[in-house]
Design a protein that fits this description.
Length: 512
């Protein structure tokens, strides 16, 4: 049955079977989002309960451990917790999120969105296959189920020792859920890059579709990976240099194995934060370890109010910078060179100005990514002296963009000029296969091998031999004429004359 509008036109309606199947499929997506949130909560609850059981001095019952697990789950989304049991009696915020803990809800939410976007098979013999839901429907349904559990967890954590800030949870949890859900739907749909929506202007869509932006994203991502890898090297070298202080802080922080295990888990969860802090240290702006105290390669004034923790024991010694600390500048130098190298992958197809623009865009991408990572890795650990920990996002982003821009653009232009230089000298086996020279060689061969129309030979055709009339009986035979000479056969002329002056080169064997 079709619906009719006021003007008399008919509207297409979906079959009843599709309408009946769409509601259960959307409900399954809502349930998948709720299950993803429940799995994250359950994992942290089991971990906290195990630590609570093994602790010789439990401060509260199992209810307090479960409230703490709900607070940690909200903290994994970037939510700020509030600690009320302090020596001064002033509530202290705890907003330094371990970045490794963020991977738990992100992976679970992404998996739920991918499963919701998967196509269904036939329900039975003679039945139609289940309809694949659109990406927007899957995203909305999975996010709705996830946020429903998140709201319940926020209410439940309010009765624990470290409740979550409601305003912080109101935007951190939906942000993480939306980003992870969108990534899952995009991955399930085959990672499409277009087409872009129709409401975007055509000039913008054509500009974004250019290959330079994909190349800039790749070069910027390569620069970020180099910066993070350099940050890991700096942190590891500092931990090895201050090995005795690190071991002493780990052993004296607690005396029971369950407490040391908890400290070890916290240190492992903070390793990605330490990577970003090490990259910020190499870039120059450094990172804060308290209010008004910043650690940079140019010096460290010292912070007497720091808590005892293994990662904080690896800070550089107090005093001005030394050549050893200045050597950390090699990390952004390597990142800038990598960005410039990755920006010249299309040197044969574009001009030097296009290559320079691609390198500059890669530097901007690197700066934006590092600014986001710096903002996510920082946060307060208390009030007053512990109000600020971590790098300043805008300073780190600006330094990353500046370092890579200054180094990447000249390198990209130089490599572009070197790769597009004119070929000189003889043609060898390697010169034939060189990109750029190969196109010129093939064009010369095509011009030399153009067919030339040969002259058409005139072939003499012998006339047909006349047939003698029938001879009557008794008549004398007529004299036979001698046979005429037959012309010798004309040799065949080739259609394509041999090419003179063309040099045939052997193809280079591929490496075995």
């Amino acid at each position: 049955m079709t619906q009719v509008t006021e003007r008399g036109t008919s509207l297409p309606t979906a079959p009843r079977a599709v309408v009946r199947r769409r509601s259960p499929a959307a409900a399954a997506c809502v349930l998948g989002g709720a299950v993803a949130a429940g799995l994250g909560l359950g994992f942290l609850a089991v971990l906290v309960i195990v630590l609570w059981i093994s602790s010789p001095y439990p401060d509260s019952g199992p209810g307090g451990a479960l409230h703490l697990a709900a607070g940690l789950w909200l903290m994994a989304h970037g939510t700020e917790l509030v600690r009320y049991e302090t020596l001064s009696g002033v509530p202290a915020p705890v907003g330094l999120t371990p970045l490794l803990l963020v991977a738990l809800p992100v992976l679970l939410m992404r998996r739920a969105a991918r499963l919701g976007s998967a196509s269904g098979g036939g329900a039975g013999m003679g039945e139609e296959p289940d309809e694949v839901l659109p990406g927007g429907v899957v995203f909305s349904a999975v996010t709705c189920g996830y946020l429903s559990v998140g709201a319940l967890a926020t209410v439940y954590a309010a009765g624990g020792p470290m409740p979550a800030d409601p305003l912080s949870a109101a935007w951190h949890v939906p942000l993480v859920a939306a980003l992870a859900g969108a990534a899952g739907v995009w991955s399930a749909k085959g990672r499409p890059l277009g087409p872009l929506p129709e409401w975007i202007p055509g000039s913008v869509r054509r500009a974004i579709a250019r290959p330079r932006y994909a190349l800039a994203l790749r070069s910027g991502a390569a620069g970020v990976l180099v910066l993070l890898g350099g940050g890991v090297l700096l942190v590891g070298a500092s931990l090895a240099w201050h090995g005795a202080e690190t071991q002493s802080s780990f052993l004296t922080l607690t005396g029971v194995w369950s407490g040391r295990f908890a400290v070890l888990l916290l240190a492992l969860a903070l390793i990605p934060n330490a990577m970003v802090w090490g990259a910020a240290y190499g870039l120059g702006p450094g990172f804060a370890v308290g209010a008004g105290v910043t650690v940079t390669p140019f010096g460290f004034p010292g912070a007497p109010a720091l808590p005892r923790f293994p990662l904080l024991a690896a800070l550089p010694p107090e005093g001005p910078g030394t050549p050893v600390t200045w050597a950390a500048a090699g990390v952004p130098v390597a990142a800038g060179l990598v960005v410039g190298w990755f920006a010249v992958r299309r040197a044969r197809e574009v001009s030097s100005g296009e290559t320079a623009l691609t390198a500059a865009l890669g530097a901007v991408v690197c700066g934006l990514a590092m600014a986001g990572l710096a903002a996510a890795s920082a946060g307060p650990l208390g009030s007053r002296a512990l109000a600020g920990f971590g790098p300043v996002w805008w300073a780190v982003g600006g330094a990353a963009a500046g370092w890579t821009l200054v180094l990447a653009v000249p390198l990209a232009v130089g490599v572009h000029v070197w790769r597009t230089r004119p070929a000189s000298g003889g043609v060898g086996e390697d010169a034939w296969h060189d990109s750029g020279v190969r196109e010129l060689r093939w064009a010369a061969l095509r011009r030399a091998a153009q067919p030339v129309a040969p002259p058409v030979p005139v072939v003499a055709v012998a006339p047909a031999e006349p047939v003698a009339p029938p001879v009557a009986a008794g008549a004398p035979p007529e004299p036979v004429a001698p046979p005429e000479p037959v012309a010798p056969p004309v040799p065949e002329v080739p259609l394509l004359p041999p090419v003179v002056g063309a040099r045939v080169l052997a193809r280079r064997r591929p490496p075995s």
